[in-house]
Design a protein that fits this description.
This protein is mainly α. The protein is about 75% helix and about 0% strand. It contains 14 helices and 2 strands; from the N terminus they run H-H-H-H-E-E-H-H-H-H-H-H-H-H-H-H. It has a two-stranded antiparallel sheet with strand order 1-2.
């Protein structure tokens, strides 16, 4: 499944220019770092969700481009801060900003991007869009802190896992779709429906990401990485809740004490497969995908609606 970029060719070119302008600085070091970041942006899923959510109702407006830029700025800032928190030297196959410019400059560039995003909205009176995205930043921080808190005890219930990923991951995609639809409709009811669509898609996105930890093929992420970092994801939570007591104790012991040993991590992955944790997570992912499509299909059929449907399918069928 390919991303429906053909529906946004002109808009994406315009977005690229506006995004570059939005993050540029007169400080030489800042400008050098932001140029490095811009050159290594990912698939731009979130800006595409913004622009398609806007275009579903009316032609993309200047407010839509600002919303897309704000979403990408906030997403980039959180990734930059994550690299410091996780002591990560690599991002998307390249050196991370943290690896090249160390912690102090990396934290400051993340703060700089956050302030640029806020000013982009304030300077143009995009108060509703700023409110939508600020709420996402709050939820993302709450999700990260809740995950840190629960990781210490290794006792995570399924409903808490959903709360974590709803805040940590799905909130930004939900806000992207809400901000995009608001930029061309200024309609509260439509914006809420699109927010819900984005949230369901974001939940499916994160579960798919968690499943990559158990993939046998090369997915651009080391297999067993979440286990090594003691992250309790849905396949593992299901396994811990549906296996016998002795296996559960052994898995928890490995997570706490032997999570860097390849053969032990491989054994845990085998237990997850054996217990049905992967199939269970895939079924839950598909439930969220189907709910997202149900919401999307409440809007009139069009090529843009089909494009958003293709985005949802891409999220759950992607190989990386």
């Amino acid at each position: 499944m390919q991303l429906p970029t053909h529906l946004l060719e002109e808009e994406l070119r315009t977005f690229e220019d506006k995004f570059r302008q939005a993050v540029q600085s007169r400080v030489a070091l800042l400008d050098r770092i932001t140029r490095y970041i811009v050159k290594r942006k990912g698939k731009q899923l979130r800006p595409m969700f913004v622009l398609l959510s806007a275009k579903l109702f009316a032609p993309v407006s200047d407010a839509s481009y600002r919303a897309a830029s704000l979403v990408e700025i906030l997403h980039t800032a959180t990734l930059i801060h994550d690299d410091v928190v996780d002591d990560s030297m690599e991002r998307r196959g390249f050196f991370s900003v943290y690896a090249l410019w160390k912690a102090k400059a990396t934290v400051l560039i993340g703060d700089y991007l956050l302030s640029k995003g806020l000013l982009l909205s304030l300077d143009n009176n995009d108060f509703k869009i700023l409110q939508i995205l600020s709420d996402a930043v709050r939820k993302m921080s709450e999700g990260e802190l809740l995950q840190i808190e629960k990781a210490r005890s290794l006792n995570l219930k399924e409903d808490v896992y959903y709360e974590i990923i709803r805040n940590k991951t799905a909130s930004l995609l939900a806000s992207a779709c809400a901000a995009g639809s608001w930029s061309t409709t200024q309609n509260e009811e439509i914006t809420e429906r699109m927010r819900s669509f984005g949230e369901q898609t974001g939940m499916a996105f994160q579960i798919k990401d968690d499943l990559f930890d158990y993939a046998s093929e090369n997915v651009g992420k080391p297999t067993g990485n979440d286990i090594k970092e003691k992250k309790l994801t849905l396949p593992l939570i299901y396994t811990l809740n549906n296996t016998d007591s002795s296996t559960r104790k052994k898995i928890i012991y490995i997570l706490k004490n032997e999570n860097t040993k390849k053969e032990k991590v491989k054994w845990v992955i085998g237990q997850v497969e054996k217990t049905g944790g992967i199939k269970y997570a895939e079924a839950k992912m598909n439930e969220y995908r189907n709910e997202a499509l149900k919401i999307l299909h409440s809007f009139p059929e069009s090529s843009i609606r089909q494009g958003l449907e293709d985005m949802v399918v891409f999220v759950t069928d992607r190989k990386y």
